[in-house]
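Quick one: structure tokens for this chain, please?
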Amino acid sequence: MTDSTLDRLKMAAQVSHLLQTYIARLEEHAKPVANDKRYMSYVKYINAFLSCFCKERVYLVGSTGEGLKLKRSQNYGDADFIMCSGRLEIPIENIEERPDLRCYVKIRADNLRRDICGELIDGYLSADMLRELRPELFTFLRAIFSEVTTNLDTMPGTISRVTTIGLPMKVGLGAIEFRNLEIDGDILNKKWSNKRLKVDRDMRVVSKLKERWRNVQLNAQDMKITHRILKVIKLGKVPGSKGENFGNINKFADDLDSVMKRIPLEQEQGPDNINVPSGDHSKEIYEDVSTMDEKIKATYTAMATRDFVPALRIIGDRKLACLVEWRKRVEKANWPPGDVAQKIFNTDVYLVARDAPLKADHSRDFCYSFNLAELKLAECLSTTQRQVYLILKSYLSGRLQKLHTGLGKSEMKFKTYYLKTSFFWVCEREDPFLWGKQNVITAVKKVLQFIMQCLQQKRLPHYFVNSNLFVELDDFECDVLQDCIRQILCEPIDSIGDFEFIKDNHGSMRVEILLDVDQVQCLSELKEDGGRIKHLDNLEDALIDIHRGFNESPRDVNGNVPIKEAVDKLFEVFIEEDRQKQISDGISNISIRGAEDGNSTQAIAGAHVPQTAAVAGLLNNFITGGRTLPMNSRESNQRMDLLLSIGSMFRGGPEIIASLGGQDGVRSVLQQTADRSVDPVLELKIVVGKYLSCSDEEEETLAQEILHKATAYFLARQE
């Protein structure tokens, strides 16, 4: 073997090693962060609850839902949500596609409910109905949205200042959350303080809320349930806690308590005689005209964005013509697998408000949303296909962005959706052999070459409907993008290195950002009281929507809403999540009996009989002398007194002990942590069910029992 051959082999080995190193790092960056996992969990809980009341649904979509997001150092959880209305569904017959851009449509609405559709435009549904979560179309989801997009400046823990602002987006609405935001000038207080100025309520908002309350029929039983749920939330407060999660719970409980005290007074008084702007979205009332015309510099340590896209489900006895065409096309293709294609064919398609890129009709333009279908395509990717896509995404925010900027273009016009669409086309068309683990770079080049061809033709077909996605790119932009991709094709492995890989010290670094006029306007409103008064108003607005949702829900023969059924559903989700967590942590392989039968009682039984955790076991052993003394013996009581005395010395200790009911309450909790003969989740589920339907005399006792059982369960868990 010659020296040149050895050199080539050595070089090939180095290149292969570099590629595998990059792939491993990209896979690490694609792992869900804590917020991603929370979002996935929230969606499961929300949909489980909604399924008992209405047709509203929420879906985590985009790269976070697909598990294909490359996290950046300054981001800790970006997410896109589809918020599906349960009050209005669009029959296929009402959809009119644009002949030149079939993915953009108008909705004929003259045969739909006018009280829901609002004012029509020449017989068509107004796109403004979906530019926000309007009360005509949403109830429970609007309540959630009002809470999570409120402009707010808080310090829920002791480490990070959290500043949130909500703003309209190009499609739907969004919220941006900053950690430790600092802004030039005096727009926002330099340091967070819980001593804020007392701000008077906006009387226009007060008037609007009163008017909304007058239009809601309050059911006495619904109000009782609402108050009981509030009581449980308040019991969950942890006095003196420095943790951020507990801080959020404490603050929410306090704010909700403040709002609940408003309701009877405001409903009795009725609306004031104040002129109120039209429309029901409270954020519109808060908007002021800004005189700023320049961006303001700010820095932060971390940022998360959440986009919420209101959507309407398409219904009908037949399928969309584009899906029929797609199903026929992929029948003989190499990808996706036949079973996946059939699932996609039967998956819901939605409509969202979005202006067409050409000849836009802002008042009537809607666009097809195939987000759920794309989730299923992402789920069926092979390991190599996933790696190829992650490499392509690294180019988009790394080398492609860098080259694009260097060629004099300030805005990157090549969107992630273009990349994903191109990737899907190559997956469908190419031989399965391409996706062997030895062909990663070959497959990457195939996708880049496909994009080059589409740019040359100025046509990228939508994956599901015959519509050109590149119609919004001009000749110059296509030429610039081709130059960029040619350079990447010359160095496909080295180009991965331009991606901004996260460094170990990223959490302490400050990132600079330029805030636009709308963002600065939102932040300036937080200076006096951190946004608390407006947050309370939004929370009250959310309670109105919850009661609207109750009013439209099915009721039993006694006139009760299905809250107990919803609680059962929530427990089922919790059980499955906890089972998956324990399996992934290698703690145990729990079998949940009866889950397939939908029998919640069987599904719960035996699933959560935890071994006593170290802390709880230590406390029990101390009190009972290594389990040699009865829990109620004189010596055990003395040891309990000593333990409580020590606990009272710590911050929040006396409050926590008091909230549990003193010595008797603490003893009850510790006894339950040591009792391995019962299923704690089943026990908790039963007492919650009793609490929601109990008499007024039993309410306080059962509320304390819920607190004891919940505390015992979480103490006994092995984390």
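The CA atoms of residues 23 and 143 lie 42 Å apart.
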